[in-house]
Amino acid sequence: MKILMPVLHYRPVIGGFEIFIQNIAEKLAEAMDVFVVTGKVTHTANKERRGGLRIFRNSLFTLKDLSCSSWLYILTAMPFIFLRSFYMIKREKIDLIHCQGFLSGILGYLLSKTTKIPHIITIQSADFSVYHPKANIKPVK
To answer: pLDDT-based confidence at 141, cuts 50/70/90?
Structure first.
């Protein structure tokens, strides 16, 4: 199975969310082909391969501060990540789009609608319904 993970930030960007995504990607890559499409980060190759895990960094700007992103970086990176992800879906014949959180979820939804590839969203919080009560989602515990 081939899985695409479009995310705004990925290692070496600092944060719990990034560690969460990295752990999922690396574990899945032990048994499947995993493609992470993310934004560019300073002192990091635009393409990496570690076993079944392949990382592609695409964005207009390069993130230099690994602890935060400006709105300019976020808004300009999203279309680049979307387009690269769309290309990867077609080229690699991706089976599933796996998203984490809000921005990745938007990308996954749009990619799924345009390519007809199924997508899932992983929420990194047991209290999602507390912060988003109108979503009417009951998280699995």
So the answer is: very low
Tokens linked to 46: 């635009």
Q: How far is CA 127 from the centre of its chain?
A: 21
- Burial group, residue 134, by CB count within 10 angstroms (0-12, 13-18, 19+): exposed
Whole-model pTM? 0.83
Query: So what's the pLDDT on residue 125?
Result: 62
Using alpha carbons, list the distances in angstroms from residue 91 to 22, 85, 87. Answer: 23, 10, 6
Tell me the residue type at 120. I
Q: What pLDDT does residue 140 have? A: 44
For the beta carbon of residue 15, count every other beta carbon within 10 angstroms. Answer: 13
Residue by residue, what is the 3-state secondary structure of the chain?
CEEEEECCCCCCCCCHHHHHHHHHHHHHCCCCEEEEEEEEECCCCCEEEECCEEEEEEEEEEECCCCCCCHHHHHHHHHHHHHHHHHHHHHHCCCEEEEEHHHHHHHHHHHHHHHCCCEEEECCCCCHHHHCHHHCCCCCC
Angle in degrees, 0-180, between the axes of helices 71-92 and 101-115, rounded to the nearest 10: 40
